Amino acid sequence: AAAEDLAAAADVARSRVSGREAVALYEAAAGSWQAAGQPARAAVCFARAAETLARFAGMFDATPPADQVTDLLDRARAAAGSDSGADLATACAACHANDTATAAELDRLIHASIDLDDVVIRSSLLDLLTLIRLHSGDIHGALRAAEQRLAPLRDVPVSPATGLELKDALHMAAFLAIAAGDVAAAVGYGREHARLPHLREETDLAIEDIIAPCVLAGDWTGATDAAGRCLTVWRQSGRRAVLPPLPGRHGRLPPE
Q1: CB 234 within 8 A of CB 17
Q2: Minimal CA–CA distance to 43: which of 88, 100, 2, 10?
Q3: Residue by residue, what is the 3-state secondary structure of 165-184?
Q4: Residue 9 contacts residue 48 (beta carbons within 8 Å)
Q5: 14, 135, 175, 224: which is deepest, by most CB within 10 A?
Q6: Contact at 8 Å (CB) between 235 and 202?
Q7: Rounded distance between C-alpha atoms, residue 162 and residue 181, angstroms
């Protein structure tokens, strides 16, 4: 029970973009699972800690050290054994941690996540596929990959883990739709993002992705209203670090 509570708390911390807290809680959960004789579940927690560091650098005040990610991946591999779920979680984190993952490798892992009915890992892998396509200049392919994340996440109950993935998928879809020239779709994704029920008390995180689509759509009232509310709540929250506003960037709101 303690290990499950720690892992759940880590998911909550990550959904609130508290990266340092999330990593510490995942490591604590992994230690608790190991003490309980559940190495595969420990491996999943080590893998999620490594993925958080490698994938969500914008959740941290400074770039996480590479050796910390490497150490967590080594511990995940050592604990995973022959468990397919733990092996998949570790492979997913490893793909985020290096620049050598190929579309073919990701496709294989995505199919494995479908076989295991793991929508969180599937979304994470599709996110990386989105970036690979984006960096190769395939804007429409990147948008398709981002959109493929949405339906499976909408079809499952909202949890801290699935909620973060849905938030991130809508964020990516909104800005890739802008890049693809589909402003109407971007507005739709931005408005869905703003309505996410698990962000109703995190207003700055909820409405940040509707501002740019509203500007491009000519909805100046909507844009200025959302921007004003976002700035007010961000100030009240202590001006925390936020997720990257663009793929592959370390995102923070600049000081005033």
Answers
A1: no
A2: 88
A3: HHHHHHHHHHHHHHHCCCHH
A4: no
A5: 14
A6: no
A7: 28
CA distance 77 to 96: 15
- Give the number of other CB atoms < 10 A from CB of residue 60: 18
What average pLDDT does range 123-136 have in this prediction?
95
Q: What is the mean pLDDT of residues 158-163?
A: 92
Q: How high is the mean pLDDT of the chain? A: 90
Residue with tokens 């990610």: 69
Query: Which tens digit of pLDDT belongs to each residue from 169-222?
Result: 999 999 999 999 999 999 999 999 999 888 877 777 788 899 999 999 999 999
* Residue 23 near residue 9, CB atoms below 8 Å: no
Task: Give the rounded percent of residues in the chain with a pLDDT score beyond 70.
Answer: 93
Give the whole-angstrom CA distance, residue 172 versus residue 5.
30
Q: Note the pTM of the prediction, 2 decimals.
A: 0.88
| H runs (alpha helix) in the chain | 2-15, 19-35, 39-55, 66-80, 84-97, 103-115, 119-135, 139-148, 150-154, 160-179, 183-194, 203-207, 211-217, 220-236
CA 174 to chain CA mean position, Å? 15
- Structure tokens given for 144: 């398709």
Q: Which two tokens stand for residue 216?
A: 């491009």
Spell out the residues 6+ positions from residue 213 whose beta carbon is closer than 8 angstroms to its own: 174, 177, 178, 183, 186, 187, 189, 190
CA angle 218–219–225, rounded 5-degree value: 140
Question: Are the C-beta atoms of 7 and 45 separated by less than 8 Å?
Answer: yes
- pLDDT 10s digits, 4-45: 999 999 999 998 889 999 999 999 999 999 999 999 999 999
